[in-house]
Automatic annotation (TrEMBL):
Gene expressing this chain: gyrB
Organism placement in taxonomy: Bacteria, Candidatus Portnoyibacteriota
InterPro entries: DNA_gyrase_B_C, GyrB, HATPase_C_sf, HATPase_dom, Ribosomal_Su5_D2-typ_SF, Ribsml_uS5_D2-typ_fold_subgr, Topo_IIA, Topo_IIA-like_dom_sf
Family label: Belongs to the type II topoisomerase GyrB family.
The protein's name in its UniProt record: DNA topoisomerase (ATP-hydrolyzing)
Source species: Candidatus Portnoybacteria bacterium CG11_big_fil_rev_8_21_14_0_20_44_10
Keyword hit for rRNA processing: no
A GO cellular-component term linked to this record: chromosome
Amino acid sequence: MAKEKLQKKEKKEVGVAENNGNTSYEAKDIYVLEGLEPVRRRPGMYIGSTGPEGLHHLIWEVADNSLDEFMAGFGNRMVVALLPENRIRIEDNGRGIPVDIHPQTKKSALETVMCTLHAGGKFGGQSYKVAGGLHGVGVSVVNALSKWVKAEVCRNGFLYEQEYKKGKPVGSVKKGSKCDRTGTAVTFEPDSEVFKDIKFDWEKILTHLRQQAYLTKSITIVMRDQRDKLARSYTFHFEGGIVSYVKYLNKTEEVRHNNVFYVNKEHEEMTVEAAFQYTSDLQGKEIDFANNIHTPEGGMHATGFRVALTRTLNDYARKNGFIKDSDENLTGDDVREGLTAIISVKLREPQFEGQTKAKLGNPEARTAVESVLADGLQEYLEKNPTDARSIMEKCVLAAKARQAAKAARETVIRKGLLEGLALPGKLADCSSREPENSEIFIVEGDSAGGSCKQARDRHFQAILPLRGKIMNVEKARMDKMLASKEVKAIIIALGTAIAESFDINKLRYHRIILTLDADVDGSHIRTLLMTLFFRYFPEIIQGGYLYVAQPPLYRLQKGKEIKYAYSDEQKEEVLKALGKEGVGIQRYKGLGEMNPSQLWETTMDPKIRLMKQITVADAVEADKFFDILMGDEVAPRKRFIQTHAKKVKNLDI
């Protein structure tokens, strides 16, 4: 028996498969998925996910087809409507999808486009010189992942229609009434079997369509919400294109020069368009596009822009005496501080990484952008000496601040290394040295810190109490920020260092939990901390390591029965369950009001607690939000408060 077990073990170790009689691997076991079935089986391969991002990606795919028509010079108006029953209708005045018989499929070209992967007018010929949807999977993927779709085409003087269910046609293409225009309308209803939570985000769609209207001059995009009686509508039309986009992004900022830099030029069959303007802000915003597709991870076009910007500004600075021969060059960070830039390239054969097109890989895009931007920027600086001086002064100031910050940062890191291996005295560390199992609670004040220290599980939970409010880093350069004891304590406790020395692999805790009181001061400190992480530790947010604790607002007791409520609505539900008479209600304003056992069972016990994970879905919108809340300009903050004042609950006076 022992020998038999040993033989089995040896077979497994050398990779010999055992046949238990339960499996078959013959020709009949090779499955061929036909038509759009692969999309329904593996939707994530085509739209990224079946969550909110993937759901909205369906809209982008259909809208991209209309935008490709506009970029090709056909049509100039698109209407996107949110309809009842989770339906979306997207209509344009382009040429209309062809409806005649396709020579290869022997079916209508409309049915071929709607029901066949990799079928479209973007693979060859002269239908589209540039296009965002180059794979030919867009509208067919939408069809595959929808419960119901209807395509309507005005072409050749008539209206043609065809309906589909889960990617399969319901009948043939029907020729209907006469039509005195051209264009395509696609109405679809996402399949609830694929998307478990179908909720379209009005603001998200609005932001995307506004962006597209800026990128294609003189087109009109209408957005309508017809889901209920309170219908609303927006119309976007921008003659200024991306120059208008830069001005829109900077509308709450103090700009450093009046004339927005703009260049639009062809280079070896590639169109390069760029616009930028400097502000007094410490952060920059750079948004990149390829064939109107947002590339959040940048790519070759972004690299070309940065290289040309840095080199051209350095050449101008030395030529005109803004930096001396003995001075070091301006760095990329120096010339991008406070920069708001839009880079848009249009090319015939874009090479995107993945179907969601997050990054552009064409090497020729770098060469084209580098060449066009360098020539255009040299001309701009020579023609606009006042603007050039303002830009140079901004960049030189950024360089001096960087050098001061480097000295301060090295002091912080050196201090950390010398003081008990980097840990501040106020930190009550955990015994675990495994980051994936460790968490740190950043709490407000010694009172809450003391309660948390008594309540915690010392093995994996660390506590870092803060004294008062940390510095608003939105208004301070790094050298000033690093002079703050509270900020230094956070940096040293995290272990990652900061700026170019930052290393996410050295993060000491994989759950960083902001644990603040449920009052105005607590909310303010939470916002200050989130500003710190957003501006200087974005990788921590991107990695999913930042959380906000959700301590209860109320403690309700009737006799010996105790319940906690985390919102006013939940309080009412608990009261109803307990019976309203004889219930004692305590509203917590601070963590210090809880004893350690209450704090553990409500806020710190991983089995019971509620936490919100902090994510950034739209970095540009988040950047604007932090500017409004935490920036120097008072007027935008005042407008924000006036707009949202009626939504405030539990305001402490």
